[in-house]
């Protein structure tokens, strides 16, 4: 992996950061006369850590230490107003007359009445939990998944009912697939929209997990419609740490981790393979015997990862600042794979004009360098005969760099050679700068303006060595370089107005948004014919273009788009009993056809807090009972620009004309002026409750989500169309589901606490019509899930069919194995029993299972005993099936002389080679995983000179998985048109052990 060239600069930056901190602390401690000091506790007498203590209308402020103590030094004599703020507690304010010397003031804070006082982020504003009328789930750092996390979206896996976060395998370079309340698109992205500190569409990779304060997930359309055409898949708000008034606070968090393979493909060892071929009269080629090679072990290693986060906050009531620096290095358990990332952030908040104007400036930069491997090595590591050598001194293998290869065998390549002879490095450098100004025009009326600029430089370097077994590179090498730039500019201007009189409260918001995006601005170069591999892909001019190869066939072209919006929201609240909210957004997008570039996205929602009613005042069971309902419409515009217009480009490579290679050009995309965005309407009803004084609480939700005008690529006749494919609207899909969240403070005394949270989600998906909105263009069904095993030409395992969910497995029905005839038996839809040579694919296939689970769940447990804390988190899915193409490929007992086989196939004892996709390879994909367990200890820092807080912890990830699935791991991606297929190229899942520390100075 490439090293960063600015590590020395990083060390210099840390030096100056510590120097600044030292000077700040020196200045802060220079004068301790006329001080106010004391201790802040809660109603049980426990210390309140991190509370902000300030003098009203001055810059004098501080924070409480680990024992709740504080000191406000250098106070002038006279009357002072002391203010204490702390999340989860009521604001405290009192007046004190400062006399000469030390003035003691101990304070007891009153806890907020319940979790309903929690502030959550909503579109273009915030609201208290009890005022929310939509479906919003909040996750705080205390609830995040601990351990080795390469992207912040993994923090939410299993934590939010209805939100599925999958990262197939343990590849640190792979992103997660996210799906909220089921799949709702056929071709467009299903990822939720991220809003980071108010910046719409900001890159989540710009945030280090330690910098996050909360993540709020908006799930229903009545909440998301304010973001219009980008919100059909939900919205996730990310709030990061900001500066607080008080002395500079320096925090460090870091960990070191070791990762190992949690499970392997269960193939035969060299000894087992040798015994099997001898027992069954099979003959292995002489050059493939005599060795004991563990191919899976040869490509893997124990991975070592570490993460370091340093942050500094402080300031006065008028000026506050925050800065953080994060370094993350995740070494993959597969050799030559891994990721290295640096994230730097700085922010300044300034109040002016008696706090009527608030200015915020933020700058973030993320540099991500990753080393990738060819996923074909996993197929090779499973299939390569274990009695073959990795390297050979035989001169015939010199052309392959000494790696043992078998010439003429299709899809059979030495995985170690493939791993070491191919080099792929990618780099993402993302910069985000944003400025926000909030002007208080009159009491209750605030005008906010936000400007943001996000730029990403994406680079990819790929090289295949001259000794690579692939015929395209053998003897000449192959190099490919790509450099792209993406730019996103946003202007948001909106007004928020709040008005309260007696029991009536009104709020209104109106705004305008302008977003211009330019993607894929860059170059690509390709060359072959290198004299040496030493320079890899760093000098393309040393090679030449391949004969007949058109380097522009996949050449990036600039994709520009413009989104202009106007939006508004109104809300009414009567005595915090009856709540009402409505919003509307009008979006115009250049991505769509000239006839459909504008659309309107409305929403309406209401809530009734029954516990505020007089007839509920005498009951003792419910401390909170709120019924809410909402309906809204949101859209999905996650497609490339220019999909609605006719486009020309390279066609069929090049042709030889008049002694030269000439590029062929033609129409490669048809025009569709009626192309428009997908539209999702959702009805949601929910019940929020707390009983036994808030000791037990939860939420029950029901939703019905209908998506129409789905984008789908249809086959069309040519002529009259100039190209044989057309992107059009028309298909539909429905998702209905129930979500339940229960939380309980099971036990609490002075020394011990136990709390638990359980979430459950069930979603039922159904594909509607597949017909387009263009006359005579549509399909009745579509086969998906190409398998591509040897001898499985044209075999698919899934079907997209109206009335059925995505991920419907459509394969031959397997009955069993006839020991007499040594043939596998199948049943046609007519009921006729046949052998596999009598099955015609897909005409004789049937619906045999479903990839989407019946329900998902998560169970989080928190224990605390004195200074010790323990978190145990389990999650799982139930009721889904997986098509195990890996097992099918390793079930060729008759071919064990040329490929390895699995122990599962050995136990089955079926000697007929499988050549069709059948229910024989459908397996139950349900699992329960102990996903995370963390044991921590908080040190007593009351006598420490430099530490305010200190905590050490030990975390274990993926300790065990309970499942009947025979493959490497049952957790597969649920995205796309053919989810639930385990098709050989699987990066092994990891098991991690982490030792970490959190320090506050």
From TrEMBL:
Domain of life: Bacteria
Localization: Cell outer membrane
Record keywords, A-Z: Cell outer membrane, Membrane, Receptor, Signal, TonB box, Transmembrane, Transmembrane beta strand, Transport
Ranges for domain TonB-dependent receptor-like beta-barrel: 395-959
Record-linked Gene3D superfamilies: Carboxypeptidase-like, regulatory domain, TonB-dependent receptor, beta-barrel domain, TonB-dependent receptor, plug domain
Membrane topology: Multi-pass membrane protein
One Pfam family hit: TonB_dep_Rec_b-barrel
Domain TonB-dependent receptor plug: 130-235
GO CC terms of this entry: cell outer membrane
Signal peptide limits: 1-29
InterPro entries noted in UniProt: Beta-barrel_TonB, Beta-barrel_TonB_sf, CarboxyPept-like_regulatory, Plug_dom, Plug_dom_sf, TonB-dep_OMP_SusC/RagA, TonB-dep_OMP_SusC/RagA_CS, TonB-dep_rcpt-like
Family membership noted in the UniProt record: Belongs to the TonB-dependent receptor family.
Protein name listed in UniProt: Iron complex outermembrane receptor protein
Organism (species): Sphingobacterium alimentarium
Organism phylogeny: Bacteria, Pseudomonadati, Bacteroidota, Sphingobacteriia, Sphingobacteriales
